[in-house]
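Sharing in case it's useful to others searching the archive later.

Someone asked me privately for the predicted structure of Long-chain fatty acid--CoA ligase, so I'm posting the question and my answer publicly. Question first, with the sequence:
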Amino acid sequence: MAGYDQTLRPFLWRAERLYPDRELVSRTHEGIERYTYGDYAERIRQLANALEAAGVGEGDRVGTFCWNHHRHAEVYFAAPNVGGQLHTINPLLPPKHIQYIVENAADRLIFVDPSLLEVLEDAYDAEAFENVEQFVVMGAAVPETDLESVVDYESFIGEHDGDYEWPELDEELPAGMCYTSGTTGEPKGVEYTQKMLWSHTMATLTPMGLGIDDSDVVMPVVPMFHVNAWGLPFSSTAAGAKHVYPGPAPDPADLAALIEEEGVTLTAGVPTVWLGLLEYIENNEVDLSSLERIVIGGSAAPRSVIRRFDELGVEVVHAWGMTETAPIGTVSHLKPDLEDLPKDQQYEKRTKQGLIVPGLEFKVVDDDGEEVPWNSAERSSADRSSGQSPREDGEDFGELLIRGPWVTDSYFKRPEADETDFEGSWLKTGDIVSVDRDGYVKIVDRAKDVIKSGGEWISSVELENTIMAHDAVAEATVVGVPHEKWQERPAAFVVPVDDADVDRDALEADLHETIAGEFVDWWTPDAIVFIDEVPKTATGKFDKKVLREEYADEELLADE
Ligand code: AMP
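And my answer, the predicted structure tokens:
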């Protein structure tokens, strides 16, 4: 046995020793800031001293409520390396989810961006935030705030020097945490141990992962509150790549400027971001010559986006993953023997979610838990020998189950989920997939009842409960319908009570108002459609599939 644990510490040590002058650049509230790995490591050690002085040690969770910038990236290494846990909180969630998350995680400190302070104040609840001893504002001054015990980041670390002896940590120690939306009820916490983050980082460095190396200039547009920005701050540091952080709410012009000025080679984000950049490029002169690849994930990368970037000389690396898989699970690289295919067929392959990353295993199971065969060559020959013509790719499908060193096998403080969401070491993903003869996984449906809009989850069940609580509503269901920009938007299908007096316009206005009072703006359904009856399955459950199919081509959301 090698008596050495797999932890994040050596990644930072190596970057500082081998690449002391390589840059980290970020667009912040104060403008563009740049420094080197040498400065980065020094400030991380100052922060480690500050965290220790604040009493943060093994088992303590440190919350962050921040966009993508260098200070956030400092917490990424300091909190786990002192033995604590980096807990990134999604500021776009409804306030009651933020309260639940902070309470459930029992965060001791929260690092917050100046521009998100108001959002945090709105979500603040004394009981839920009981364990939070201090708020650290990401800047050099504390803005006006109702919160108590607030310090600015530069003062917080400024009192400490840059000498720090990192502790030897156990690889099984929780080092990170991120919540994902539950289909019903509260968000579910996923913990990442040191070893999970280590192995995910190593996998992303391989060519069959994201192939990041020290010649790269990496700009994560995916927020750092989403599964550690898909692990990119860790991978970039491990590789010695230059980091570029686009800061608070970047628009396409900001992204284009950073790509040009910083020579970005690899960037990553959800499809909505790249649709925005493509539109910007159509109307503005942008030099994309440094950009080699864009990792697109979180929702399916549209074929048109893959094609348009390809025509601009930029490879789209389509990837699939989940909060539970830390997140990279499959990547749609072209196998060497497919590189000669006509372009159209190449795009077809790359539109799929891709090939399993080395180190992970998966299987596809049907409703009875029986394994569904892949449409491999083996299957085709079995078909042929039984006299049948070989099946077409994608004819068999089922739920994707996945396991591996960076895949979780439980949710935080949720033992009941072990029965429903896991099968031993296998994670039940809730994604329905087919696998083609080349081994490419393709998502064909989603078994979980949630809507993903611009990369963020909306709980259809919570919206339904609110709508159905209205006296004039007999039954209602909320369904994700396709949307060009956001991939999916919620549409509510409402059956009014059997009463001639129900004024549908008034009911619609009333529902909009109730929803607006309870949820964040972007959760509001884009359409409320009155129907006579919600279609049901044989067992009497709402059959959303029927509505999704029926309204897939409708111009329901045409004005949005
Ligand atoms: P999250 O836990 O928020 O990262 O969401 C994970 C879920 O997003 C997956 O289970 C899929 O349903 C969806 N997803 C992630 N990546 C893709 C992709 N490339 N194509 C389609 N759906 C995706």
